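User: For documentation purposes, I need each entry recorded in a consistent format: the amino acid sequence on its own, followed directly by the corresponding structure tokens. There are two entries in this batch. Please keep commentary to a minimum and don't merge the entries.

Assistant: Recorded as requested. Entry 1:
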Amino acid sequence: MTIHKTLSLLLVALCYFSPAMAQYTDTVTSKISKTASGELVKTILLQNKKIVTYRSFLLPVGMIGYGIASLNSKGLKHVNEKIKEEIWTEAPHKKTPIDNYLQFAPAAAVYGLNMAGIKGKNNLRDRSIIYLMSNAMLNVSISSIKNTTRQQRPDGSAYNSFPSGHTAEAFASAEFLRQEYREVSPFYGIAGYAVATATGLLRMYNNKHWLSDVVAGAGIGIASTKLAYYLYPLIKRKLFKNRTMNAIVMPYYKNAGAGVSMIYNIN
């Protein structure tokens, strides 16, 4: 199956979203509100109405809504099964581990570009804290929703399929790259999102996730980074008035677990 065909199926799947969202709004609200991340997002939106641009969250919220709607929609489940059939069932193939590392590539590019002398939007301290905030919200959201929904993976290996953590990390990193370098060139963001999309496609190629897992994961990743950028100015004013901080943030992958680590020194 070609990437072009996969993307075409993705667009068709998204067309189901509008009617499905209305039908499953109550389901989304009840599930997400029970999680720590849901309470965090609710508090943020209530306290920072003037800071948060709701329109910028329409796409990621729509993607998350599509994913949750697919948990109960026969039509969307059929889309998942059809894509699995096209990618895996009809053409079994060797899996690739590249998605385990590709998910961090856009974030690594932010630090690489700065080391190369191409300055982004924020200094080392600020961008590092924003990246850690994004990952904190992302990981809380992913873990909470996985434990709530307990969806079986396409390969039957576990019951933690929904949503895709790899894809969430990849799109959070892509949005991080876009935010830092959108004033330098839009092509940095385009490249980051291309890598994130490739990560999502590879999760399906490896038979580890359904389409809906990938779409929802992408939405969570984008929303997490956007929230981090909206919140950080408030935190910065309270925590860092005349202090400086030297820090380095590094993604890691070990024993099938991924995350970020930070070493810092505050003066």
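Entry 2:
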Amino acid sequence: MQDFEGKTAVITGGASGIGRALAARFAAARMNIVLADIEADALDKAVTALAERQTRVIGVLTNTMLHESILELAQRAIAEFGNVHVLCNNAGVASTTSGGRPVWETPQSDWDWVMGVNFYGVLYGVQVFVPHMLAHGEPSHIVNTASLAAVLPGGGSYGVSKHGVLALTEGLQSDLASRGANINASVLCPGFVNTLIFAAERNRPDALAATGPMQPEAQAMVTAIAENMLAKGKDPAEIADTVFEAINNEAFYILPHPAWDDIVKSRVEQILARGGVATTDMTAVLRRRDAGEQF
């Protein structure tokens, strides 16, 4: 997809972080913008900021866990701007309350919340918007935000959800190509980005409230990652530039953090060696980060 001006982009999780940066980048290309988010105040501020730059933009309060909410998002977008050409299924959360627990002890509420937003939110976006894009037939592109967690060893609700997004998007691209659709897909797998992902609990539904305290050592690990890695991660605007280039070039895999390449490669090699489960040496990652590499 190379013609952006006057086209329409829909972005979930669009009120902050990568989503808001994507909106700004698409706005710079003179696209119409539909921001979707569950946080009303942040959504209003993001819409106002874009409108002040003369961007044609609307905000739609959206709960990506609900199919009907995504359907309403599509209806609002089409009613306002007509055909949708770019869809960024970007909304995502990470639970900070279950660290240190084995997967069999992770509360069902964590699985339901994280999978509901990170995986089913993407699936619902695909289910709702692909038929619309197929019907209008104009060049279109779908970007599903996964994470490097999708290609690294690890588990928990976050890792499982992101592995699911990767597999879903690979299947989506294959299905689109086999049908000759005028739609391409990409999967975004960033490393650490300076966002509020560790504060996602603020938007957790009451019905899926966390249960049980986080183990102290696990809480310390989360804090260390947030302070030492996430806050010093790449700027969301840099990720947005990389995504825009990928859409323009119809690239599928978007991995903006090459510092992780050798670790991803080592995991694949471990799989092909039929060995044990691969691990990530976070101490080595921190050492390399301190030496100037961006993870």
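Summary note for entry 2:
The CA atoms of residues 269 and 275 lie 9 Å apart.
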